[in-house]
Write the structure tokens for this entry.
Amino acid sequence: ATLAEEARSRLAALDHELKKYERENDILKKLQAQAEQADRDIVRDREKLWREVEAEKSALHAEFDVERASLRKERKRLSQSADRQRQQLLEDKDAQEERRRLQERAEQMEEEMREKEKR
């Protein structure tokens, strides 16, 4: 083999190695681009999930506030109703006591009238 043939063979081997490295470099660049895109997708998905969780949390807080206001209103209504019933019972008791006193007074007056008639 001549020196020129040897040089050509060596040059072809180097060209082959260079093409192999270029292919590997292209593959690595593609993989790196895919990894970067995957990272961006993960960040986007995380932000989307965070917004969904925040929206759900806000909705639950709003629902809780409405429920709490409704319970307060119902508690107030029940308390007022109980107060009215207590007041009505007191008034009924007072009226009953007044009727009893009037009845006793009427009976006493009737007794006095009978006593006067006997004399």
